[in-house]
Amino acid sequence: MITQKLNDQITRIGPDTPAGAVHRQYWQPAALTDELAGANDPMLPVNLLGERLVMMRDEAGDLILATREASADEAPTHHPAREEIRLVEGGPVYPVVEKNGICFAFMGEGEAPAFPNFDCFRAPESHVFAFKGLWECNWLQALEIGIDPSHASFLHRFLQDEDPSDGYGKQFRDKAANTDMPITQVLREYPRPDIEVDETPFGLKITSLRHMKGGLTHVRVTNQIFPSAICIPMSREMIITQWHVPVDDENCYWFTMFTSFDKPVNKELMREQRLKEHSLPDYAPLKNASNNYHYDPEEQKSLTYTGMGMDINVHDQWAVESMGAIQDRTREHLGRGDAAIIRYRLLLRKAIKAVQTGKLDRLPMQDMQTTPQIMGPLSNDAIADSDDWLGASMAADMERRQAAPWDATV
C-alpha cells in the first residue's frame, strides 16, 4: 500500500513529471519500421510520453521526432491524415535510431546514452521480428504484470496441453529444457514459485523456482530492463524483449522484439498471427473492454482460465485494463509473490531522486563506456536437479547460445 502522492509520482509521465523525466533519459520505442514502409518522405504521427510528435526526415535524411500541433478532438492514439499535420515552429526535435524493426527516440537532456549489447539488438535482422499493441492503461501496471512470475500459472493457465510443434510464434507452447513436459503443464501443476530478485547493471534479474516431484526444480529466469522493459523466454528457440511505452498517463503501447537463437524468424507468419488480433493503423486489439474481450464461459470450463482465447496478450490486457486507467495502489497489499514489483518500485524511486538531484550517472545503463558491454540477458526455462538449479539454468542458456548461427556469446 502506498500513498496517492507516491502513486502519482511513479505513474505520471508528462514533460514535467518525476517518472517522465526518468523515461526521457532512455531510448524509447516510438514506431515500428513497418509503419514507415513505402513512404519516401514519412510524416508519421507519434504520441509519446504525453507529447504530440511526428516522425519525419530532416534535411540530412535522418529520422527525427518533431513537435506537432494536436487537434482539440484528437484522441491519444488517433492518427490524423498527413496533410493535417502542422509542426510547432521552434518546438523540440528528438533524434531517432532504427534497431531491428523498431525506431527508438531519445527525448532527454544532454547526450543520448549508448545502447546495451542485448541479444535483440545484436542478432541479425533475419532473426528478429518486431510488433506492437495498444493497451488502454498506465504504463506501470503494464510493466508490473510482466515482472510477476506467479501470474502465468493462473492468468495463462491452459487446461489442455497442445503439441509444442504446433505452437510456433506463441508463448508457453514449448517444452522446458531437458524434459518432455510442456511448459503449460509445469505452470499449471506448480503454481506457487519461490521468487529470487537480484539487481543487475540493466535492472533486475528475476528467478522463479517451481519445486517439482522427484527432486527436480523448474527454473524460469526473466528480467526487468530499466526503466520499462522486460526480457522473458518465449520458447527454447526465442526470447521476447518488450517495452511498455507510455503514450500518456492512461494509455501505453507494448513494443516487442522476438529474437531467435535458431532459425531465421518466420516474420510473415508471426505478423499474420498478430494482425488477426489487432487493427491498423493504431495496432489496437480487436478484443477489448467494449466487447468483453470475447469472453466465452464455455471455453472457460474446459480450455482456458480466462475464457478469453489462446492469445496471452489478451489475458494480460484484460488484467491490466480492468484495474482502471491508473491502478489505485493505495488499496493494494503486496506479499512475497510481489518481490520483483517491490524491488522495481524502489529502483524507480532511486532513479527519480537521481534525476532530481542531477546525478544521472547513478541511473542504470547511462555510462557510455560500460553500457555497450552489457550483454544477454539470460532468459530461459529449464528443469534441473534441485541441488544444482543455478548451474543447470546457466548451462541451458550457454548451450542455446553456442548453437546460435549468429554471435550470441556472453
TrEMBL record:
<dbReference type="InterPro" id="IPR045623">
    <property type="entry name" value="LigXa_C"/>
</dbReference>
<feature type="domain" description="LigXa-like C-terminal">
    <location>
        <begin position="106"/>
        <end position="360"/>
    </location>
</feature>
<dbReference type="Pfam" id="PF19301">
    <property type="entry name" value="LigXa_C"/>
</dbReference>
<keyword id="KW-0223">Dioxygenase</keyword>
<dbReference type="GO" id="GO:0018620">
    <property type="term" value="F:phthalate 4,5-dioxygenase activity"/>
</dbReference>
<protein>
    <submittedName>
        <fullName>Phthalate 4,5-dioxygenase oxygenase subunit</fullName>
        <ecNumber>1.14.12.7</ecNumber>
    </submittedName>
</protein>
<keyword id="KW-0560">Oxidoreductase</keyword>
